[in-house]
Design goal:
The complex is a heterodimer of chains A (112) and B (114). Chain A is 0% helix and 58% strand. Chain A has 112 residues and is mainly beta. In chain A, the strands form two sheets. In chain A, strands 2, 4, 5, 9, 10 and 11 form a six-stranded mixed β-sheet that branches. Chain A has a five-stranded antiparallel β-sheet with strand order 1-3-8-7-6, with no helix packed on it. The model of chain A has no long low-confidence stretch (mean pLDDT 94). The N and C termini of chain B lie far apart (36 Å). Chain B is built from no helices and eleven strands. Classes of the chains: A mainly beta (112), B mainly beta (114).
Amino acid sequence: AQSVTQLGSHVSVSEGALVLLRCNYSSSVPPYLFWYVQYPNQGLQLLLKYTSAATLVKGINGFEAEFKKSETSFHLTKPSAHMSDAAEYFCAVSGRDYKLSFGAGTTVTVRA
Amino acid sequence: EADIYQTPRYLVIGTGKKITLECSQTMGHDKMYWYQQDPGMELHLIHYSYGVNSTEKGDLSSESTVSRIRTEHFPLTLESARPSHTSQYLCASSEGRGRQETQYFGPGTRLLVL
């Protein structure tokens, strides 16, 4: 079985500040990990994914995430927040049965 | 750019009505999924399909049913809507080539049952 825990349901950052969203996973097989973003009234859009090729994964819109096996973590970061980053972010892990298990999501608000 | 469509986007309906939520994709993907999403909660898989004439129930029990008669179409039906069915329903598809594959999501249908 696999699961994901996202620490913090809400994160508020100032424009230009670092964005850090935390994700810890549990998986009985080598994990494939994903970060998705959901803007208001839209579906989920893939930001980036870890497929074991490299531990530091770069995604769209300036986001990146680092896979740390020893910490079972896959935290998402962006050096400088922009107003357009306000959205909900979901971490997910792909299990043995090819299905995705999602975290509960973290809502990001960006203060001007 | 993913091409997956859901209609209607918003639906308000009375208890006991039959409803069908439509989902179509133009990418030729074999796998399709329905998720239920409530505020502050993780997405829950309620149905999935590996191809034409294949449907399976997901991890979250649901009173809805699905069909997959054509590759591009994966409708979800509620025979008798109840207030407990109020939620957002997201459809997704993927190529079906392995655990690392990306799922592409539609914009969702927000359902309110009065």
